[in-house]
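User: I'm curious whether this sequence folds into something compact or stays loose and floppy. Could you predict its structure so I can see for myself?
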Amino acid sequence: MKQSTTSTAAACLAALVLLASSPRVQASPTSPPANVRQQPAPPAAPVQAEVTVIHATNDADGGIDPRIGKVPNLGNYKSYKLLSRTSVPIKMGLPSTTTLPNQRTLQLSLKDVKGNQFIIDTSINQPGGTAFLPLLEVRAAVDVPVFIAGQTYQNGMLIIGIKVLPR
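Assistant: Here's the prediction. I'll summarize afterward.
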């Protein structure tokens, strides 16, 4: 039985060699003809993102700044004050930056777009110092903010909201 399998395999191999060496058999090209140009995939169009910076503290008389809207549950703070809201263009692979109130730099870069999800690389750096948040990948949908918290600031904490704006 083993000899039959070996002779069958040898016969198949011989047939393949004969077919490959036959002048009538041609291999299909692996690359397009020289006169056909390959078009690179277009880069994802830049998107506008709204960066909201909120200062959360335990000041008893602060309450929630009405300009903020719904406050994320990021700790047990008593006061939430809107510090800034800016529009930042985010491009594929090219970082955009904005300065935070504690003088650190927030860097945003569009990494990918998958369906309705925008994958954004974020980092927070201290100019002349080491990175506080070296790299954080966030996934955002249009008009749905994603929040990053933890930067200390004036007896409280900064909460950073990133929201992709409609095109």
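Summary: Residues 47-164 form one domain. The first helix runs from residue 2 to 21.
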